[in-house]
């Protein structure tokens, strides 16, 4: 149960190697918003084989709440004085968990072209699977939310980077909060909300002071990732067709 009904609770459901951390930094600039970095990560690691191959997994498990239901009740739906709460989430973290809490949250789905995402992810996680990268679960989540009567906003990283102001303005309108220009810039460096995994994944966002201009990936696509790309592409295309445009 939401203790403070005036609080807007935004869950950004992303996959890995996207602009989810940049969006967390963006929302963190708002004076009305508190942000949280992947609060269900330890729950996911403690219940999946990812514990054995995600960098820094044991530290995450040791320092965060492992019980996803407690995270939902105590944090995501817990009491808050902040007008807006922003939870950066990963769709593939939604395992062995009752999804019903999403009836009480504002849900946004963030996707990225797997042609650009997969080579980046494979630098940290060898031989990734469809389950690791979340595309199928994104579509499953979309259908679930639609059955709840929701029309979740969908972001595509390319469109967001092409025109951050236009896309974020539309997003804020859709989720019922005013757009604020401060969302477009932030100080370089880490944030106190960053998870312990920042040292493996956040180098680029720590160097940034805002959304970076979109640049297509250069170089040859790794042949070993072609089968996974073929699996991911249909899911991505369905989401991209619904995404907010620049």
Automatic annotation (TrEMBL):
Gene Ontology MF term list: transaminase activity
Keyword flag Transferase: yes
BP-aspect Gene Ontology terms: carboxylic acid metabolic process
Family: Belongs to the class-IV pyridoxal-phosphate-dependent aminotransferase family.
Keywords: Aminotransferase, Transferase
InterPro entries: Class-IV_PLP-Dep_Aminotrnsfr, P-loop_NTPase
Stated name of the protein: Branched-chain-amino-acid aminotransferase-like protein 2
Listed Pfam families: Sulfotransfer_5
SUPFAM superfamilies linked: P-loop containing nucleoside triphosphate hydrolases
Signal peptide per UniProt: none
């Amino acid at each position: 149960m939401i203790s403070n009904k005036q609080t807007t609770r935004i869950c950004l459901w992303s996959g890995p190697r996207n602009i989810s951390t940049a969006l967390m930094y963006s929302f963190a600039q708002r004076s009305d918003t508190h942000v949280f970095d992947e609060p269900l990560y330890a729950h996911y690691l403690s219940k999946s084989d990812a514990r054995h191959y995600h960098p820094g997994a044991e530290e995450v498990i040791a320092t965060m709440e492992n019980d996803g239901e407690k995270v939902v009740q105590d944090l995501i739906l817990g009491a808050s004085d902040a007008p807006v709460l922003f939870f950066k989430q990963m769709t593939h973290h939604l395992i062995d968990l009752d999804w019903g809490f999403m009836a009480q949250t504002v849900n946004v789905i963030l996707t990225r072209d797997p042609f650009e995402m997969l080579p980046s992810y494979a630098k940290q996680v060898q031989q990734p699977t469809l389950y690791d990268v979340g595309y199928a679960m994104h579509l499953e989540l979309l259908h679930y939310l639609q059955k709840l009567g929701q029309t979740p906003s969908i972001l595509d990283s390319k469109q967001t980077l092409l025109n951050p102001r236009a896309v974020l303005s539309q997003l804020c309108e859709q989720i019922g909060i005013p757009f604020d220009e401060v969302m477009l810039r932030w100080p370089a460096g880490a944030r106190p909300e960053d998870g312990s995994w920042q040292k493996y994944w956040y180098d680029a966002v720590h160097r940034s002071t805002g959304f970076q201009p979109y640049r297509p990936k250069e170089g040859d696509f790794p042949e070993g990732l072609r089968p996974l790309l073929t699996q991911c592409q249909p899911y991505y295309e369905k989401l991209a067709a619904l995404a907010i445009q620049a």
